[in-house]
Each structure stands twice: as structure tokens, then as C-alpha cells.
Specification:
Neuraminidase, 4-stranded antiparallel β-sheet, globular, binds 2-acetamido-2-deoxy-beta-D-glucopyranose, secreted, Olfac-like_dom, Olfactomedin-like_domain, Quino_amine_DH_bsu
């Protein structure tokens, strides 16, 4: 199953920004690096401002809906549903958002929407994930993440998130703490229909100085920042399926932001990152390219 998915997966992060190696400082290619960095700065788009430092926002990462969802705060049960990105950006336009009140509250900012289901960490439990049917407005299913999940915050700079969820080209994932893994992130692949666990990996990525992470094409990218302030950069990449060659793994910088991110989630439909930083809802546009098959 995983092997078939692996072959179908064609995207990798394009190397938008490299950290120029010191020995290349005089290299003409340096100009190119700087230009590429500039491209990243331009690709940031603040689409809305909400006062709360914590929260998440997203589109359905597995369906065709244009709807945008806003979940304000790190513990709440109110979900705001906007018709599309435009109504999300222009607060005053009619129709206003639809208010959905969940029967349970979420914890942290790791929620995802996948194929009309909202998946979230149930507040007050250490490791329960709720699968909520947004159309029927009912709890569809629930599961317990094993292996010490939810006992500690995953990221040092985002202390309310104990379980982070992610969707990429391969489906649904959870990022969480583990038993005795000494601050290393654990990655678990979840089967979204049955909520069964497909596999868990102890990653080499540390929780120290981490603020967020996302999955893209089966690869985990962890964003770090020293003391929660910029620069925010990906310094740990974990490739559990072995689909990406070492030299293709990016060293990606994010545009300077005053605070750490509350969440950064990839959406495989539009290949953008949806992020929350200091109350701002941000889109980071990514460049992706087709991956050459491994020999
Ligand atoms: C929950 O969210 C709603 C609207 O987003 C807000 O009015 C309310 O104060 C929040 N409740 C808590 C406990 O934060």
C-alpha cells in the first residue's frame, strides 16, 4: 500500500531558499540564492488578522470545497465557516461566516479537515482524536493515539499543541511526543476511514526550539526558531518512506516574523502552507516540482 503511494507521489519542495555555504560566498551563484530568497519574501501573504495568538485555519485538504474554516484560540468548540477565501479576507462582505458549535472542544492548533471531516485533539484527554462529520454535524468516530502521545507539548514554542495533525498527498498523519524518546517527535500514519494506525516512526527531529511542522509528499518538515523569534527555518527533515534523496531535501527559510507560528499546515490540493503567526492568518506559496524517479 505504502509502496504504491510512494510511486504516485511526484512532488517535492522546490529549493526556494538555500543557506549559501560560506565557501560559496564569492560564487556567482550567490546572486541566484539571494534572488531566490527574495522570492520567498514575496510569497508571504497575510490574508486576515485575528487577535488571538493561537489558532488554526484551513481549507479541506482532501475535497474540492472552496470553504475556509477558522478555529480561534487553543481551546474552544466554535468553528467559523466562510464560503471562500474572498469572504474570509473581506470580513464585512455578505454572507457572513456560518458558526458551527462542536459537541467537544479542541486542544491546541493541530486540527485538519480532510474529505469533509474535521480531525482534532479532544481537549481534556491526553491522546484522543475526534473525527467530526462537518456535513451531518455529528461525531463520526474517535481513536486513541498510542505510544505516549499527548503527554507533552510537541513543540517548545507552541505549548498548547500536544497532538499536531497533517494531511499530504499520502493522507492523514499525526505528529506527537512518545515514551522515552527524549524530546524527539514521533510521526504516526493514520488510516482516515477506519482510524487505524498504519505505522509509527520515532524521528530524529527534536522538540527543542521547534515551533511547527508539516508533511509534504510523505516527508516531515520541522520548523525551528531560536527562542521563538526569527529566523524560522526548516532544519530537520524526516523521510520515513525513503522517497527523497538527501541532496533534494531543502533548507528552507520563512520570511521574518516577530513570533513563532501557532501552526503551519500544508494543503496538497493547492500546494500552499496555511499558517498562523501572531494573530495573522498567512499563506506561504511553495514551489514544487516533479520528482525524478529514483534509480
Ligand atoms: C470561543 O470562541 C468564541 C468565538 O470564536 C468566543 O466568542 C469565545 O469567547 C471563545 N471561548 C473561549 C472559552 O475562549
Amino acid at each position: 500500500m505504502m509502496v504504491a503511494l510512494q510511486r504516485a507521489c511526484l512532488l517535492v519542495l522546490f529549493l526556494e531558499v538555500f543557506l549559501p555555504l560560506p565557501q560559496h560566498a564569492q560564487d556567482p551563484a550567490m546572486v541566484h540564492y539571494i534572488y531566490q530568497r527574495f522570492q520567498v519574501l514575496e510569497s508571504l501573504k497575510i490574508v486576515r488578522k485575528t487577535m488571538d495568538p493561537d489558532g488554526s485555519w484551513m481549507k479541506d485538504a482532501g475535497g474540492n470545497s472552496a470553504k475556509v474554516y477558522l478555529l480561534i484560540g487553543s481551546r474552544n468548540n466554535t468553528v467559523w465557516e466562510f464560503a471562500n477565501l474572498r469572504t474570509f479576507m473581506e470580513d464585512s462582505t455578505k454572507p457572513g461566516p456560518r458558526k458551527l458549535v462542536l459537541p467537544l472542544s479542541w486542544q491546541g492548533s493541530g486540527q485538519v479537515i480532510y474529505k469533509s471531516f474535521l480531525f482534532f485533539h479532544n481537549q481534556g484527554t491526553s491522546n484522543e482524536i475526534i473525527k467530526y462529520n462537518l456535513q451531518k454535524k455529528t461525531v463520526e468516530d474517535r481513536m486513541l493515539l498510542p505510544g505516549g502521545a499527548g503527554r507533552a507539548p510537541i513543540y517548545q514554542h507552541s505549548l498548547s499543541t500536544y497532538i499536531d495533525l497533517a494531511v499530504d498527498e499520502h493522507g492523514l498523519w499525526a505528529i506527537h511526543s512518545g515514551p522515552g524518546t527524549q524530546g524527539h517527535l514521533v510521526l504516526t500514519k493514520i488510516e482516515p476511514d477506519t482510524l487505524g494506525i498504519e505505522h509509527s516512526w520515532e524521528t530524529p527531529c527534536r522538540n527543542q526550539d521547534a515551533e511547527a511542522s508539516f508533511l509534504l509528499c510523505g516527508v516531515l518538515y520541522v520548523v525551528y526558531s531560536f527562542s521563538g523569534q526569527g529566523p524560522h527555518r526548516i532544519t530537520c527533515v524526516y523521510d520515513p518512506l525513503g522517497t527523497v534523496r538527501e541532496e533534494h531535501l531543502p533548507n528552507l527559510f520563512f520570511p521574518k516574523r516577530p513570533r513563532s507560528h501557532s501552526m503551519i499546515h500544508y494543503n496538497p490540493r493547492d500546494k500552499q502552507l496555511y499558517a498562523w503567526n501572531e494573530g495573522n492568518q498567512i499563506i506561504y506559496k511553495l514551489q514544487t516540482k516533479k520528482r525524478l524517479p529514483l534509480e
